[in-house]
Design brief:
By secondary structure, this protein is mainly β. The protein has no helices and 30 strands. A 4-stranded antiparallel β-sheet has the order 12-11-14-16, with no helix packed on it. Strands 24-23-27-30 form a 4-stranded antiparallel β-sheet, with no helix packed on it. It has a 3-stranded antiparallel β-sheet with strand order 8-10-13, with no helix packed on it. About 2% of the residues have low confidence.
Length: 269
């Protein structure tokens, strides 16, 4: 424990007329009452050279030599935390310096997501106990990491063939409405595209009735899909059919379909 004079920490320790830089009881430093971490850097190489430039978008493994480095007196204590693509779970907190400088490799996670922004993976140090950071030392040290692939937009190829199988009408206030028993067979012809398209869905909307309803899924290599839509109850002032195009959004294939929903015109009674 620190040396105090009454309630105040001792400001100096001497042997005769000579100043003592540090005093210990066993392995525990008791003077001075605080110790300073004199340097904190991330990332460095194993040889202690500060890295510059950006981390690859895919991140860095332990073998890639991205070290955190702490310099200070033996016995200094602290904890470490990661920010952005550095996972805090890899740190064995709390730490006590037993050698200096103390370096070890850090894993930097991937930023390889479509449209991910440039980011700054880093490490934050928090001194504990009687340890403090020396003046001018930033508790957060970080490096840049390359942004993910920017998505490209494309217009999907979609066309429809609609056959009315049966028409059952009812009248509300003199206006005709489709009702139970009405049905339509719809064939959607879509582009065969395994690079940009994950899959398609064929669905419909029953106007003046319920909302959009799923019909069937069309594979990205199928070229077309057919489904029969039937009203089993209720009424509809019109029906409309549509294809949703689900683009591939996994690097290196980063795409968005525009429009996402391609629709027919409305079919009225």
């Amino acid at each position: 424990m620190p040396i105090n004079i009454q309630h105040d920490a001792a400001s100096a320790l001497k042997v005769g007329h000579e100043n003592v830089s540090a005093g210990y009881v066993g392995h525990e430093q008791v003077y001075p009452n605080t110790v300073e971490i004199s340097n904190f850097r991330f990332p460095t190489t194993n040889a202690g050279v500060l890295r510059t430039g950006n981390v690859p978008v895919g991140g860095a493994a332990l073998s890639d030599d991205y070290n955190v480095e702490i310099t200070g007196p033996i016995g200094a204590t602290f904890t470490l935390a990661g920010i952005n693509t550095v996972n805090s779970g890899q740190f064995s907190n709390p730490y006590t310096l037993t050698s200096s400088p103390f370096r070890f490799d850090v894993v930097i996670g991937s930023n390889n997501v479509c449209d991910s922004s440039f980011t700054s993976p880093g490490v934050v140090i928090t001194p504990t106990g009687s340890t403090q950071l020396a003046s001018g030392i930033n508790a957060t040290q970080a490096i840049g990491q390359t942004a993910g692939t920017v998505s490209s937009s494309f217009t999907p190829s979609v066309s429809f063939s609609v056959t009315e199988n049966s028409r059952v009408l009812t009248y509300v206030g003199g206006s005709p409405f489709f009702t139970g028993g009405s049905s339509w067979t719809v064939t959607a012809t879509v582009g065969v595209d395994t690079t940009k398209v994950s899959y398609y869905t064929l669905g419909w909307y029953r106007g003046n009735g319920t909302t959009s309803t799923y019909g069937t899924t069309i594979a990205n290599n199928a070229g077309s899909g057919t489904y029969t839509f039937s009203l089993t109850g209720g009424t509809a002032g019109y029906v409309r059919f549509h294809v949703n195009t689900y683009a591939i959004s996994s690097p290196p294939n980063c795409y968005t379909a525009s429009p996402f929903k391609t629709s027919t015109s409305n079919y009225y009674p």
